[in-house]
Amino acid sequence: MKCRKCGRQAVFNMRRHKLALCAEHYLEWFPEQVERAINKYKMFTHDDKVLVAVSGGKDSLTLWDVLLGLGYRAEGLYIGLGVDGGLGYSDLSLEKIEGFMATRPGAALHKVDIPESYGESVPEVAARTQRGRGKPCAVCGLIKRYVMNRAASEGNFDALATGHNLDDEAAVLFGNTLHWQVGYLARQAPVLEEQGDLARKVKPLCRLYEREAAAYALIKGIDYIYDECPHAVGSTTNRYKELLNELELDSPGAKLQFYLSFLKAKEQGLFQQAMEQVTLHPCENCGQPTTAPGLCTFCRLW
Ligand code: Q46
Ligand code: ZN
Ligand code: ZN
User: Fold this and answer.
1) What whole-number distance in Å separates Cα of residue 267 and Cα of residue 159?
2) Closest ligand to the CA of 290
3) Non-local CB neighbours of 265 within 8 Å, separated by 6+ positions
4) How far is the CA of 296 from the centre of ligand 3 (A)?
5) What residues are neighbours of ligand 2 (ion), with CB under 5 Å?
6) 115, exposed or middle or buried, with CB in 10 Å at 0-12, 13-18, 19+?
7) pLDDT for res 63
8) CB 294 within 8 A of CB 284
9) Less packed terminus of the chain by CB within 10 Å, N or C?
10) What ligand has the least distance to the C-alpha of 124?
11) Ligand 1 atom closest to 235 (CA)
12) 205: how many CB neighbours lie within 10 A of its CB?
């Protein structure tokens, strides 16, 4: 396979684009795609301060690297969940982030350690509450959202960026569709505008396949944590990913099509009513906007 741009040996082939590229041209192509998404969905500008949630995995480090490379004012946020899972997952993820920063002297990182700040690790909170029965992910998701919102608002960030890629978005969309979760479908988007104190949420990798983000990290020599969080193993989202991968194998581009058609349908007004129904007010304890009456779900948890 030859690079379409220069004819040298290609290192990566993207079936959905019928495009093969050499290392040098791939490292040009990928950030261009990210920037196109940022502009297309009006995620942020070069004047904005962007907080990037980093886990030490390939997607978030790739995103941070690309944003820094494109000259955006991107700072990192690491949330220490206190997950061990037999491999010291949380410690290892912080090590990878620190390794990443060692070669990028200007990069700034904000750290929130859950056990240190709140007295319990995520698996411990999950074991204590109804919500977390069996798996800590429900509790974890809510804690991460809360901490991210808080860090973004306290640091006066204009946008909060996460490394969700197309595979993530398609899998979540698949799950939401399977159960017709209208509220979730209404809120699933490349950009969720700020609401009061809640920062704008953006997903600049939402049109890029997981293997494309992985290829970028590998070619760029980013050392990331290969293991997923141990609690992700066997999750329904991962099962949906496998299903969609089978579909993709038969018809390249199927995942992208599924996601983009959904966005188009939303643009045409699907789920509009559900979007208008959400009303927020400040939590009695912490002041963060919430839909729950009285205390927000985070404050209830602790
Ligand atoms: S970090 Fe948290 Fe995930 Fe681990 S405990 Fe579950 S939700 S799997 S993205
Ligand atoms: Zn080339
Ligand atoms: Zn609260």
Assistant:
1) 22
2) 3
3) none
4) 4
5) 3, 5-6, 22, 25
6) middle
7) 98
8) yes
9) N
10) 1
11) 8
12) 30
128, 129, 130, 131 alpha-carbon torsion, rounded to 10°: -120
The long-range contacts involving 145-148, CB below 8 angstroms and separated by at least 24 positions, are 146/288, 146/296, 146/297, 146/298, 147/79, 147/112, 147/114, 148/51, 148/53, 148/77, 148/79
Q: What is the average per-residue pLDDT within 283-300?
A: 91
In the reported structure, the alpha carbon of residue 106 is separated from the centroid of ligand 2 by a whole-number distance in angstroms of 30
Ligand 2 centroid, distance to 189 Cα (angstroms): 33
C-alpha 301 to ligand 3 mean position (Å): 9
> What is the per-residue pLDDT for 256?
97
pLDDT at 134 over 80: no
Contact (CB, 8 A) for 109 and 77 = yes
What confidence tens digit (pLDDT) does each residue in 168-210 have? 999 999 999 999 999 999 999 999 998 888 899 999 999 999 9
Identity of the amino acid at 36: R
Q: How many Cα atoms occupy the beta-carbon half-sphere of 39 within 13 Å?
A: 8
Q: What is the pLDDT of residues 59-107, one digit of tens each?
A: 999 999 999 999 999 999 999 999 998 889 999 999 999 999 999 988 9
What is the number of the ligand closest to the CA of 21?
A: 2
Q: Measure the N-to-C terminal CA separation of the chain; round to a whole number of Å.
A: 56
Is 232's C-beta closer than 6 angstroms to any atom of ligand 1? yes
Q: Which two tokens stand for residue 31?
A: 């950030």
Q: How confident is the model at residue 165 (pLDDT cuts 50, 70, 90)?
A: very high
Measured in whole angstroms, the distance separating CA 273 from the mean position of its chain's CA atoms is: 26
